[in-house]
């Protein structure tokens, strides 16, 4: 499929606003604003589940309802999602303090771009890198309470791991393994890289959790999302949905 957008548009015209694509498992495509609004807004809870798959389960130890904030579903997902929204509201989601942090990182990005141009407006500059690093800094600032200069080797390593994982997980060979897990026993380079880089990312966040636990304080305003989450873990120590999640991964 050389032009997916064009192909999906043609299928929309041929089959209507809802159709199935086999990749190789059936994937339901909702191809109109009205259908999306009906499914995701009016009937949001009915479509809140997450598909299970081999390539994700390796990071959640095959937990029935997944794990973490991104890879879980069901009651666990509902509780964690509700709590995550509460944290971001307390941090000023949609209000001035959140906007100020975002503007700070955007200004840093603009300064980085200006330095690259050296006053020469005719220089061609790939904007993917500064924009992606800026977004990564904004996310890390809110979640981990830290940010990096664009030249920080650790920061660039972090970005390269994410890029590599997203590239390999979308590859044909890894998607075939996801559909037919028995293929994982074959020496597939993309799958090997996906595992190595995925677990490297997991270790990065587990180290961040460990550092936050070592300096965790229960008083005052939480410094970032992770500290707020760990506090809630302490309060809800008997709640399995919180206990398992942070105990094993972010």
TrEMBL record:
Keywords: Iron, Metal-binding, Monooxygenase, Oxidoreductase. It holds the Pfam family p450. This is Unspecific monooxygenase. It comes from Ancylostoma ceylanicum. Belongs to the cytochrome P450 family. One of its GO terms (molecular function) is oxidoreductase activity, acting on paired donors, with incorporation or reduction of molecular oxygen, reduced flavin or flavoprotein as one donor, and incorporation of one atom of oxygen. One of its GO terms (biological process) is organic acid metabolic process. Signal peptide: none annotated. GO terms for cellular component: cytoplasm. PANTHER family: CYTOCHROME P450 508A4-RELATED, CYTOCHROME P450 FAMILY.
């Amino acid at each position: 499929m050389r032009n997916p957008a064009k192909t999906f548009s043609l299928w929309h015209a041929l089959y209507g606003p809802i159709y199935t694509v086999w990749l190789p498992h059936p994937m339901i495509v909702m191809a109109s604003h009205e259908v999306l609004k009906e499914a995701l807004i009016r009937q949001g809870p009915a479509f809140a589940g997450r598909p299970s798959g081999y390539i994700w389960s390796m990071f959640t130890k095959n937990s029935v309802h997944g794990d973490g904030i991104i890879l879980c579903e069901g009651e666990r997902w509902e509780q964690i999602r509700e709590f995550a929204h509460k944290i971001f509201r307390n941090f000023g989601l949609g209000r001035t303090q959140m906007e100020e942090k975002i503007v700070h990182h955007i200004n840093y990005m603009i300064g980085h771009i200006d330095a690259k141009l050296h006053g020469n407006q005719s220089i061609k500059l790939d904007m993917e890198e500064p924009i992606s690093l800026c977004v990564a800094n904004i996310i890390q600032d809110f979640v981990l309470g830290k940010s990096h200069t664009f030249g920080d080797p650790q920061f660039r390593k972090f970005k390269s791991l994410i890029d590599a994982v997203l590239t390999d997980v979308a590859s044909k060979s890894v998607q075939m393994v996801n559909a037919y897990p028995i293929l994982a026993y074959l020496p597939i380079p993309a799958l090997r890289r996906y595992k190595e880089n995925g677990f490297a990312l997991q270790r990065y966040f587990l180290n961040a959790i460990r550092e936050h636990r070592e300096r965790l304080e229960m008083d005052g305003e939480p410094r970032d999302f992770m500290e707020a989450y760990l506090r809630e873990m302490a309060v809800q120590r008997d709640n399995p949905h919180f206990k398992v999640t942070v105990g094993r991964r972010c």
